[in-house]
Structures are given as C-alpha cells and as structure tokens.
Amino acid sequence: MPFFENSHRIHINGGNFIAAGGDVNIEQDALAVRLYLVAATLEALHDPVESFPQPRCHPETREKMLKDLQEWTLGADPTSSNILWLYGPAGAGKSAIMQTLSCQLQDAGRLGGCFFFKRGHATRGNARTLFATIAYQLAIGVPWLKGPISQIVEDNPSIVGRSIDTQLQELISEPCHT
C-alpha cells in the first residue's frame, strides 16, 4: 500500500519514510534498551561527551591506590566489603582516581557500570537515575543480564520512575540473582 494513497499536490522535503506491510515486530531487547536510553543519565558515565576531557590521574601517580582498588574489584580478599566509599575533601582527586579506575576496568573488560555524581547537576546531582543508569550499562555490557533486565522494563516501563529502593531491587538485585 503506497504512502498517501489517493492524495494530490503533496510536497515533502527531506525525511526518511519506511513502508511496512503486515506485522511489524520490535525486538524485545531493543525496546527495553531504548527505554533505558531515555531514563539513563549518560552524562554520569566515565567518558561522557558533556565534560571532556575527564579528570584522570597523571601517569605514574597514585599507582599503589589504583592497584589496591583493582584488586578490590576482583574480590580477592573475602573479608573485604562489597561497597567501597572513597572520601576526601573537595579537590583531593577522588573523581580523577575513580575516572582512571573506570577506564582501566573498561579496558580490561571488567567494568559493569559506573555513575559519577556532580553537585548541582540536574540529573547527576541526585540518585533518581542512578540504578536505571547502572542497569542500562549492565544490560549493554553483560550478555546474561540483557534478557532479564530487558524483560523487567518491557513488563513495567514505569520502573525507571519508581523509588530508588524499588529500582535497586528490581533492576539490579533481581536480575543479578536469576
């Protein structure tokens, strides 16, 4: 069936049009990933276009700390915590350390996800999009999590607007324990 059947004197400039006949199916994973793209705060990743260049450690600095952090990510010490809190005064280099570590982990194929907060920023200044952003990265980067996370979003697209407790439980905890 042609576009604009039985129409006259129509002028269209530019644009791309696709005519689809019969049933049109959108792959479930693609739909879920697109929903995440809307909800995820991509500026909070370790390499966003928004603020380039990112703060990083200068070469041959903080090597011991970065080595310790990499070992911590491997979980080699069963007595260590699963949560790391890096703290210090403003300007001490916390963001540079974690940006550098994130790049190293990505280069090694071991970065599940990250979120860099920024005080006063509309989307990075609070935790509203934290777990949607992490779940988006996990769905993209961890093959066995793509299906479960995509299914959760497909079944309940409003999950990305729910409380952060609910997002943590449904987008991160449940898929990781399936």
Could you walk me through the main structural features you see in this protein, from its secondary elements to its overall organization?
With 178 residues, the protein is an all-alpha fold. The chain has a domain at 58-111. It has helices at residues 28-39, 63-74, 94-107, 130-141, 143-155, 164-176. Helix 2 crosses helix 3. The protein starts with 27 loop residues before the first helix and ends with a helix. The relative contact order is 0.16. The mean pLDDT is 77.
Which value, in Å, is the CA radius of gyration?
A: 21 Å
Number of helical regions = 6
What structural class do helix, strand and pairing data support?
mainly alpha
Terminal residue distance: 45 Å
Mean pLDDT: 77
Largest sheet: none
Strand and helix order: HHHHHH
> Based on CA inertia axes, which overall geometry fits?
globular
Portion in strands: under 5%
Give the helix proportion (percent range): 40-55%
The parts where pLDDT drops under 50 for at least 5 residues are: none
Let me know the number of strands: 0
Q: What's this, in brief?
A:
This protein has 178 residues and is mainly α. The chain has helices at residues 28-39, 63-74, 94-107, 130-141, 143-155, 164-176.
Topology, element by element:
Layout: H1 28-39, H2 63-74, H3 94-107, H4 130-141, H5 143-155, H6 164-176
Helix pairs in contact: 1-4, 1-5, 2-3, 4-5, 4-6, 5-6
Keywords: Repeat
Protein name: Nephrocystin 3-like N-terminal domain-containing protein
InterPro entries: NPHP3-like_N, P-loop_NTPase
Jot down its keywords.
single chain, 178 residues, mainly alpha, 6 helices
